[in-house]
C-alpha cells in the first residue's frame, strides 16, 4: 500500500471511528443501564461502568410481566408481514417489468403515490374495514395494516431490481426448455436475491418498530406487540420503570441485530447467481 493510500485510510479511520462511537454510545448506555443494580441507576455522577452487574431486571421482565407474550406477538406479526409483502411484491414487480399491458406505468406510479400518503390517512378506513370483517383487535389485523404501507415501497424497490436483470437470461433458459415459471425460479429469483433480502429486512424492521397502527388497532394484551406493550406496561404519567425499560429495549434490539448479522453476507450473493447454466 502506498504512502498516500495509507494516509487516506488513516484519515478515514480518524473520522469514522468517532462517529461510530457517538452513534453507538446510546446503545452502550442502554446495555449498561439494563445490568446496573437499582441503587446505581440514579447515582451522581453517573458511571458508565457499574460497580456490580445484575440480571435481576431481565428476570423480572421475563417472569413478572407480559413481555414474553408481547415479544411472541411481534415475532409473529413481523414474520407474517415480511412473508406476505415479499411474496406479493416479487410477483408484482416481475409483472410490472416483464409483461406489457395497458396502464402498467400508471399502476407503478399509483403504487409509489400510495407509499407517499401519511400513515394516519389510512387508520380510520382500515379500522372500519377490520371491524366489519371481524378482525379488529387481533394479530391478523396488524399484519394487514402493516402490509398496506410496506407493500407499495417494497414493490417499487423490487421493480428496480427486476428491471436490472437482463431478459436475455430468461430467454436463454426458455430456449433450453425451461418454462416461464422455471425461468423465473431458476434465473430471476437468484439474480434478484439481494433486492429480495433488502426488501425483507426493510419490511421486518417496519413491522417490528411500528407504533401508531398498533396503538389504534389493538387494545388487548393478547394481541399487543412490543412497541405498545412495553409503553403500556412500563411508562405511566407518574412513573417510568427505567431498569425494566432498558432491559426491554435491549431484548427488542436483539432480533434486529441477529438478522442483520446473519443476512449481511447474503446481500451481494445473488449477483451473478442463475446467470450461468449448470
TrEMBL record:
What SUPFAM superfamilies does the entry give? MetI-like
Instruction: Give the UniProt subcellular location, in the record's own words.
Output: Cell membrane
Residue ranges annotated as transmembrane are 12-32, 70-94, 106-130, 142-162, 183-208, 242-263
Q: Which keywords, in A-to-Z order, does the entry hold?
A: Cell membrane, Membrane, Transmembrane, Transmembrane helix, Transport
First-listed, main subcellular location of the protein, grouped into a coarse class: membrane
User: How does this protein lie in the membrane?
Assistant: Multi-pass membrane protein
Family as reported in the entry's similarity comment: Belongs to the binding-protein-dependent transport system permease family.
Q: What is this protein called?
A: Carbohydrate ABC transporter permease
Amino acid at each position: 500500500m502506498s504512502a498516500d493510500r495509507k494516509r487516506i485510510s488513516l484519515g478515514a479511520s480518524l473520522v469514522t471511528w468517532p462517529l461510530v462511537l457517538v452513534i453507538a454510545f446510546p446503545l452502550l448506555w442502554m446495555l449498561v443501564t439494563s445490568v446496573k443494580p437499582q441503587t446505581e441507576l440514579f447515582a451522581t455522577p453517573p458511571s458508565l461502568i457499574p460497580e456490580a452487574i445484575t440480571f435481576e431486571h431481565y428476570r423480572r421482565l421475563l417472569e413478572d410481566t407480559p413481555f414474553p407474550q408481547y415479544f411472541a406477538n411481534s415475532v409473529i406479526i413481523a414474520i407474517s408481514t415480511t412473508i406476505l409483502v415479499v411474496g406479493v411484491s416479487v410477483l408484482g414487480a416481475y409483472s410490472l417489468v416483464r409483461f406489457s399491458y395497458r396502464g402498467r406505468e400508471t399502476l407503478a406510479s399509483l403504487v409509489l403515490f400510495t407509499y407517499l400518503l401519511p400513515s394516519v390517512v389510512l387508520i380510520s378506513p382500515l379500522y372500519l374495514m377490520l371491524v366489519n370483517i371481524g378482525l379488529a383487535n387481533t394479530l391478523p389485523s396488524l399484519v394487514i395494516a402493516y402490509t398496506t404501507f410496506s407493500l407499495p415501497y417494497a414493490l417499487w424497490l423490487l421493480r428496480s431490481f427486476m428491471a436490472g436483470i437482463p431478459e436475455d437470461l430468461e430467454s436463454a433458459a426458455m430456449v433450453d426448455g425451461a418454462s416461464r415459471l422455471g425461468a423465473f425460479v431458476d434465473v430471476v429469483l437468484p439474480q434478484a436475491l439481494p433486492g429480495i433480502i433488502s426488501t425483507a429486512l426493510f419490511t421486518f424492521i417496519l413491522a417490528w418498530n411500528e407504533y401508531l397502527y398498533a396503538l389504534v388497532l389493538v387494545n388487548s394484551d393478547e394481541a399487543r406487540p412490543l412497541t405498545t406493550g412495553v409503553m403500556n406496561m412500563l411508562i405511566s404519567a407518574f412513573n417510568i420503570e427505567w431498569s425494566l425499560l432498558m432491559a426491554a429495549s435491549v431484548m427488542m434490539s436483539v432480533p434486529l441485530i441477529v438478522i442483520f448479522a446473519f443476512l449481511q453476507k447474503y446481500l451481494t450473493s445473488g449477483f451473478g447467481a442463475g446467470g450461468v447454466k449448470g
